[in-house]
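look at this one:
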Amino acid sequence: MVKFIPAELTLGLRSKILRNGLAPAECVFPTDHVQGAFHLAYGVGDEIATIASFFPKSYKDSKEEGYQLRGMATDEGFGGKGYGAELVKFAIAYIKNTNAQYIWCNARTSAVGFYQKLGFRLMGEEFEIAGVGPHYEMILNLY
């Protein structure tokens, strides 16, 4: 089940899956507590299977309002079960109640197919995020 969670509950999976075991304090995003930010988890029993954070931020020079998806991670053993897709679909429905026209992200190259199945499209060439790996910018128009 998808639920809203405090930013602090994202740090364990961010560390484990996205940041190669960095201390949780090193996995805090500067946008975790900006106005309009929210964090979601897909829970299975008492465990958090998948997390993602969303915050208002326009894509590059766009004049339209958007949300950036950041820090999406699924714990080992929970992959391929559709939890991540359910979480993103929940976020899409929620963000449609704002003035945002789209959701965008810097997707790991290994996750491009996942986002494409949800309707996101590539926006340029592959690039490297130092210490994290190769990514693509992707965007999903909400209307």
